[in-house]
Specification:
By secondary structure, this protein is α+β, with helices and mostly antiparallel strands. The protein has 3 domains: 113 residues, no CATH class; 196 residues, Dbl homology (DH) domain (Dbl Homology Domain, Chain A); 126 residues, Roll (PH-domain like). It has 19 helices and 13 strands. The strands form 2 sheets. An 8-stranded mixed beta sheet has the order 6-10-9-8-7-13-12-11, with helices on one face. Strand 3 and strand 4 form a beta hairpin. The protein is globular. 33% of the residues are buried. This is DH domain-containing protein. One of its GO terms (molecular function) is guanyl-nucleotide exchange factor activity.
């Protein structure tokens, strides 16, 4: 069997499977991540929708394809580039990449979009090569380029969303597409505001019934109080008194709601601490019988719980098991992401690019929170760093590379961390678990130029601008050339952006190196 036929059959099986998954989700009524909180708030699905308490996902009419079935279009693109992949080694042809669908057409802004920005059609299927930076994902449909992460959705969620239409009143259906998009954006904002009110009410329930009860808890429970209550009190105050007020301020101007999240960026760091410790709190509850007994007693003894069958429940008034409240924060962060993508989509349709760009930055902030919550696993295992690790900030990227230093002919494996304006080279010790990373060297990006090697295209060259500093050649350890090239593109893109932001002297031209 020739390679083209084999590749074609692989693609057919791959996308038949995507259709099957989407169909199964549609039959099961799955509504995606955005319903994780509000699905438990509702007293009846119809009433909850009318009150705006349940998040919704984009509609089929909102996800129009400009040129037929995106699966067929993608399949055609794959056949067109088969001539290029035919010459590749078999190992490279069988790379497993994440597949996403564009929920909105993307037209790069001249002078503002990054180099190699990639225009997309709405409904176009792409394979995502790198999505570690929400501001720009590396995709190939089939050519390779950069697209903001807010333009993509997973296939299963994309097709599920087609069943969940944002309906307009009958007298609004004859409006222009831009007018309809404006009304639908207002619907999204209304649901964002209503679910925020319900979310804050749930946090107050937790504070009133559980957190205050810890004052009278047995000693064997009180010793775990900090690990169990986390910073719920601070988060309750933030969402009740700050976040809600910020959203309400933009009730008459929902297109600018992204400013609320950007203005409160530092406050959202409180959520990182909670997301980081949720798993540990769940583990304590699962393993400690005294804690289980205490929490169950609170849940079962409160009068309102006994009244559930006799009174009509309202969103936010029900008492849940404590484990539910621990999951509120990560669930709410995922809801924000869904809402932001919709607001961006409708802002683009009504040609409000500035609002869309601001919302894109807010989305990047929200998407970074779960990632930053996991960074502690690396930073706490960084050893021998001569300065304050706490001042390094967030980790933008981390990966294993082969590194050549100055004129040394032999390379050494270095695990590299990319911080803002800094690249830290470390020696990874896999003998311990989790592995530790011993500091080797740190490069300040404003003191280096970075270029792509002229002959080794998957290699980056870091040349110092000051005497006495070493030159580094950095190359991914991946065995296949395509993976090394993806890594080089992604790292160089982020470094270029950082150096531009801090006034560094980035040079992306190729350079000859020995």
């Amino acid at each position: 069997m020739d390679r083209i036929t084999r590749k074609q059959r692989q693609l057919e099986r791959k996308y038949d499977n995507l259709r099957r998954i989407a169909a199964e989700e549609q039959r099961s009524g799955s509504r995606g991540l955005a319903t994780s909180l509000s699905g438990q708030l509702r007293s009846g699905s119809g009433q909850a929708h009318n009150k705006g308490l349940l998040p919704r996902t984009p509609s089929s009419s909102d996800a129009r394809s400009s040129s037929g079935d995106p699966i067929k279009r993608y399949h055609q693109n794959q056949q067109q580039q088969q001539q290029k992949t035919d010459a590749m080694p078999a190992m490279e042809q069988h790379r497993s990449l994440s597949v996403f669908i564009a929920i909105q057409a993307y037209v790069p802004e001249p002078g503002k979009a990054p180099e190699e920005a990639l225009p997309l059609e709405q409904g176009q299927i792409v394979e995502v090569l790198d999505n570690k930076n929400a501001a720009h994902w590396l995709a190939q449909p089939p050519q390779t380029g950069w697209v903001p992460g807010s333009y993509f959705e997973t296939p299963s969620k994309y097709y599920t969303q087609q069943k969940n239409t944002r309906e307009l009143a009958a007298d609004k259906r004859n409006l222009s597409e831009q007018q309809q998009a404006l009304l639908k954006r207002e619907q999204v904002f209304h649901e964002l505001l209503c679910t925020e009110e319900a979310f804050a009410a749930q946090l107050r329930n937790c504070l009133q019934h559980y957190l205050e009860a810890f004052d009278a808890a047995p000693e064997e429970v009180r010793e775990h109080r900090q690990q169990l209550t986390l910073n719920m009190r601070e988060l309750c105050n933030f969402h009740t008194n700050v976040m809600l007020n910020g959203l309400q301020y933009y009730s008459d101007d929902p297109g600018n709601v992204g400013q609320t999240f950007l203005r409160l960026e530092r406050d959202f760091e409180q959520h990182i601490a909670t997301m980081r410790e949720v798993e540990n709190a769940q583990r304590i509850i699962a393993e400690n019988s005294a804690v289980q007994t205490f929490l169950e007693a609170i849940y079962k003894s409160l009068p309102i719980h006994k009244m559930f069958k006799n009174v009509k429940s309202t969103a936010g008034s029900e008492l849940k098991e404590y484990i539910y409240y621990l999951e509120l924060i990560p669930n709410r962060i995922r809801q924000y992401e869904d809402y932001f993508k919709e607001i961006i989509k409708y802002s683009m349709r009504i040609q409000q690019q500035q609002n869309a760009n601001m919302m894109q930055k807010a989305l990047e902030l929200i998407q970074s929170l779960p990632i930053r919550a996991q960074e502690i696993e690396f930073t706490k295992n960084l050893l021998d760093y001569p300065e304050d690790i706490g001042q390094l900030g967030r980790i933008y990227r981390h990966e294993l590379f082969n590194v050549w230093e100055d004129d040394v002919q032999e390379s050494a494996e270095r695990y590299i961390f990319l911080f803002r304006n800094k690249m830290m080279l470390t020696d990874r010790d896999m003998k311990s678990y989790p592995p530790v990373f011993r500091h080797y060297s740190t490069m300040r990006l404003d003191k280096y130029t970075v270029r792509q090697h002229s002959r080794e295209e998957d290699t980056m060259v870091f040349r110092p601008e000051e005497p006495g500093l070493p030159t580094f050649l950095v190359k991914s350890v991946h065995s296949d050339a395509q993976s090394r090239e993806f890594v080089r593109k992604a790292w160089l893109r982020d470094i270029v952006d950082m150096q531009a932001a801090i006034g560094g002297s980035t040079e992306e031209e190729n350079v000859e190196e020995g």
